[in-house]
């Protein structure tokens, strides 16, 4: 997985973002640890099974739905099903070896 460290992207306070399988990370936060890299790799798996474009469409639409529900941008972000799966499984460094296809769909509704 390719990681590009830079000074400006992602915008705001975000530490890293996965764009089509390439990770952009803010240099000021230091080198990404294994947990964060695994989180981003989970997004890569999600993106591939959603043929990339549908991942980003779903991501934005679900964020808007969750924003209406929670009325808070941070809460909306943490409750996107892709993020729920990535945060729930990021510490399992072998997750890619046993992750079921479409696993993120189990996180659409809160358990
Ligand atoms: Zn994420």
Task: Describe the protein in words.
The chain is globular and about 35 Å long. Helix 1 (34-49) packs across helix 4. It has helices at residues 34-49, 53-70, 73-78, 81-89, 95-98, and strands spanning 3-6, 16-19, 22-26. The mean pLDDT is 96. It has 111 residues and is mostly helical. A three-stranded mixed beta sheet has the order 1-3-2, with helices on one face. It has one domain (3-107). A hairpin with a 2-residue loop joins strand 2 (16-19) and strand 3. It contains five helices and three strands. The site of zinc ion (ZN) has 4 residues, from helix 1 and helix 4.
Query: Termini, distance in Å?
Result: 31 Å
Bound small molecules, by name, code or SMILES, are: zinc ion
**Overall pLDDT confidence:** 96
Query: Biggest β-sheet: count, sense, barrel?
Result: 3 strands, mixed
Supply the number of structural domains.
Answer: 1
Helix/strand order, N-terminal first: EEEHHHHH
Please tell me how large the radius of gyration is: 14 Å
Brief synopsis:
With 111 residues, the protein is mainly alpha-helical. It is 48% helix and 12% strand.
How is the topology of this model organized?
Layout: E1 3-6, E2 16-19, E3 22-26, H1 34-49, H2 53-70, H3 73-78, H4 81-89, H5 95-98
Parallel strand pairs: 1-3
Antiparallel strand pairs: 2-3
Helix pairs in contact: 1-2, 1-4
The structure holds zinc ion (ZN).
Residues 39, 43, 83, 86 line the site of zinc ion.
